[in-house]
Design brief:
This protein is α/β, with parallel strands linked by helices. About 55% of the residues lie in helices and about 10% in strands.
Length: about 525
């Protein structure tokens, strides 16, 4: 019988996958710094990480974890220790307080029951705003948000996903100014500027420190009714975190400095790490870091982080595949053996497959109480189930019922017939399902970056945040190559499996027993 289907091996696969999950999710002593999915947050997160390292504190940076709700969950569950946030977001989005200018002391009083605190005010106010192309704004006579509300022009809005749903975002702004517009679907913040420059949209939400405002010569519409609260940058952290090693950053980043740092990444092509290192060097009155030339695709592709990203990606793919094999094959057998359960089992597995990946990841974060590798592993295992369960059932259903009856007539027990006759004959079909699941998981694993699980998706998400096609391709190309290699490896294994299938001819022309 092909060894891949032996029950002992299935149990070993499950045990190995769970062991990998335990090791990967083991809580290290590092202070974990998080960041959201936009340039400024990446840079500030990297500045915090490097500052901690210089102070002798072990630290890591989980980049681009998602929106405010994901970050709050990550803090609450201990997945991260701190991340850069803004006072207005803390007050309105996290605490649901209608307080436009809360003090740091007031915020901390409200945050205390949650086990959180805000510390290290960085020195700049990155307020929300709406921006238009300067020529259009001048032609239409729009300088303020009130002017926008009075405009009869059918303007197209390109608003970020988070701004559309925030308590201090579009819905509240629309009500405050009686804006007569209906925006379309959400647009990633990094892509919105590209769409604005290409005249695909007319109005975008912006941050006042965005580098693209000056580069694209945009007009930031004045908030003449003072709707937006102050968004003073701070570090939001768990209550037990000692902020002392980070205090050297307090008040050191003003609006112009932050805008320049954003430009270093988005316009000059520096990495987040380079921009952060240069800032810290200048802050210490040391010689500034040597200016870097824009990196080519090959430089980005073979950057020093490639081995780590490949290791994380492959671990996610094959550990989740092992779990899916250990669960999916028995479920497929159960669906075949018990026809009354077939519809229910196949329906449940099929429905789970249709759940959007980000929604499933968010649900699993709440379920397991952490972010990172473990919920991503479970999500990928769930997505790998359908082809394995379906092909196991299909392979067994394709066999003649006479084979099972013949085995029983020879005195074999039902389990022996399954293990020694039916599963070996159905092995090629089952293996095809496993191959499909493996190739699909290589692609789906890139989404795990949104919850800090690492992998090649880090490059894709970071490139999306700064609208850097080269960086996105530096993550997408190796992911595609991995998918092709996985396909070829499994094709080779499948060919070997077919050669060993009972009932096929050996090279000497004999029929295997």
């Amino acid at each position: 019988m092909p060894r891949i289907l032996r029950p002992g091996l299935i149990r070993a696969l499950l045990a190995a996958a769970l062991a990998v999950a335990a090791l990967a999710s083991h809580a290290a002593n590092d202070v974990v710094v998080g960041s959201k999915r936009f340039t400024e947050s990446y840079i500030l997160g990297e500045i915090a990480r490097q500052t901690l390292l210089e102070a002798g504190v072990a630290a890591t940076h989980r980049q681009g974890l998602g929106n405010t709700a994901v970050m709050e969950q990550a803090l609450a569950t201990g997945g991260i220790a701190l991340y850069p946030e803004y006072t207005g977001t803390i007050a309105r989005e996290l605490l649901k307080k209608d307080a436009p200018h809360p003090s740091l002391e007031q915020l901390n009083e409200w945050l205390k029951p949650r086990g959180l605190k805000a510390a290290v005010p960085l020195g700049f106010n990155n307020t929300y705003a709406l921006a238009m192309r300067e020529d259009d704004a001048a032609r239409l006579g729009i300088a303020t948000l009130s002017d926008l509300a009075r405009s009869k022009e059918p303007l197209r809005f390109g608003l970020s996903h988070e701004f559309l749903v925030r308590a201090d975002g579009w819905n509240a702004l629309k009500q405050a100014y009686a804006l007569p517009f209906t925006p379309g679907s959400g647009l990633d913040h990094g892509l919105a500027y590209q769409a604005l420059a290409g005249k695909q949209v007319d109005v975008v939400d912006a941050y006042s420190t965005d580098a693209q405002i000056a580069r694209l010569q945009l007009r930031v519409l004045k908030d003449d009714r003072n709707f937006f609260p102050r968004y003073d940058a701070v570090l939001l952290m768990r209550a037990e975190v000692d902020p002392q090693p980070l205090q050297r950053l307090a008040g050191r980043i003003d609006d112009d400095t932050m805008r320049a740092l954003n430009a270093e990444v988005e316009i000059d092509g520096k990495t987040f790490e380079q921009a952060a290192r240069g800032f810290l060097a200048r802050a210490k009155s040391a010689p500034a870091a040597k200016a870097s030339q824009p990196q080519s695709f090959l430089d980005r592709l073979f950057a020093p982080d490639l081995p780590r990203l490949l290791r994380e990606h492959l671990t996610l793919v094959f550990a989740s595949l092992a779990i899916a094999v250990a669960i999916g094959i028995p479920l497929g057998v159960l669906a075949h053996r018990m026809p009354r359960l077939e519809g229910t089992l196949m329906g449940v597995v099929g429905i789970v497959q249709t759940v959007p990946s980000l929604a499933l990841l968010a649900f699993l974060i709440v379920l397991v109480g952490r972010i990172g590798f473990f919920p991503a592993l479970l999500a990928l295992a769930v997505y790998a189930l359908l082809p394995i369960v379906r092909n196991t059932h299909a392979g067994l259903a394709s066999l003649s019922g006479g084979m099972r009856q013949a085995g029983l007539a020879l005195g074999m027990r039902d389990g022996q017939v399954l293990r020694s006759v039916e599963l070996p004959l159905a092995a090629p079909t089952i293996f095809a399902g496993i191959k499909t699941a493996a190739v699909l998981n290589v692609g789906v694993a890139t989404v795990a970056t949104f919850i800090g699980a690492g992998g090649l998706g880090e490059r894709i998400v970071a490139g999306l945040a700064v609208n850097d096609t080269t960086l996105m391709l530096a993550g997408a190309v190796p992911a595609a190559v991995l998918a092709l290699l996985t396909q070829w490896v499994f094709d080779g294994l499948e060919h070997w499996l077919l050669k060993r299938r009972p009932g096929t001819e050996t090279p000497r022309g004999r029929v295997q027993a």
